[in-house]
Write a structure and sequence with these properties.
By secondary structure, the chain is an all-alpha fold. It is built from 10 helices and no strands. It has one domain. The protein is globular, with a radius of gyration of 19 Å.
């Protein structure tokens, strides 16, 4: 069987990653505005605004503690999705960056992997800046808080791969509206703002099939120290989904870029 992951040249992929890093270092001041400002307003809106209306514990946590994982995951994952949709589309279509890279010995799989690796790196950098805000607002109460970056990295791999695969199949930028409408709709089921257990049973099954639910649940466990047996299965599920979507992304970029 022809496996796209086996065609990755790590040296070439890192060269693509370094190219994106150099661009980021020129624009880092503007790049960091969103991941710092957005969580602050989200904490005020949900943690204090909605939290004041609820006025009770959610899953034995204050609502501010409960919602912290949602704020953290939502901000980090959204940045990854935008990087691998609109950002990747601009590099692929308008700037012809992908064409220029593929004119070198870099193959399509290494290009795609380098792009996803960069999206994951960007998500990890954003996480480093957002985590202190989570602590300051009182949503992180556990010594395991730094470990929340692990499920977020897997979330960035899975959503970065999904975003790049979708981008490879989009020929008009307006079609991203359909993807984001579906993406934002699923976010409301993932336990970011309320417990998944509050949903009807059949909808809970749907929610747990969405990998973002596992990312948020694992983040919440790290921030609060409330671990459960299901988190082992969620981590395994994230690993499998990430590998499958990564393979799809690599194949999709080769099909789009290599004639």
């Amino acid at each position: 069987m022809n496996i796209a992951l086996a065609k990755i040249d790590l040296t070439d992929a890192l060269a693509v990653w370094r190219r994106n890093l150099r661009v980021y270092l020129r624009l880092w001041k503007t790049e960091l505005i969103a991941p710092i400002i957005e969580p602050i307003f989200t904490f005020f809106a949900f943690g204090f605004g909605v939290g004041a209306l609820i006025g009770s514990e959610v899953e034995n946590l204050s609502y501010l503690s409960f919602v912290g994982a949602g704020v953290l995951a939502f901000t980090v994952l959204m940045r990854t999705v935008f990087e691998m949709t609109y950002g990747a589309y601009f590099r692929m279509v308008y700037q012809s960056t992908y064409d220029a890279i593929l004119a070198t010995p870099v193959n399509a799989e290494s290009l795609a992997f380098g792009e996803i690796l960069w999206a994951v790196t960007k998500g990890a950098v954003d996480c480093i800046f957002i985590l202190p805000l989570v602590v300051i607002f009182g949503s992180a109460t556990s010594l395991f808080t730094p470990l929340s970056i692990v499920p977020l990295i897997f979330g960035c791999v899975y959503l970065g791969s999904l975003g790049l695969a979708i981008t490879a199949h989009v020929h008009e930028i307006d079609y991203f509206n359909i993807f984001f409408a579906l993406f934002f709709s699923t976010l409301f089921l993932c336990g970011a703002w309320f417990p998944v257990g509050n949903l009807p049973e059949w909808l809970q099954i749907v929610a747990y099939l969405i990998p973002t639910t596992s990312v948020i649940d694992l983040c919440r466990a790290c921030l609060t120290g409330n671990f459960a047996a299901r988190h082992v299965y969620e981590m395994f599920y994230l690993c499998v989904i990430s590998i499958l979507l990564l393979e799809w992304a690599l194949r999709s970029i080769r099909k789009r870029m290599v004639v």
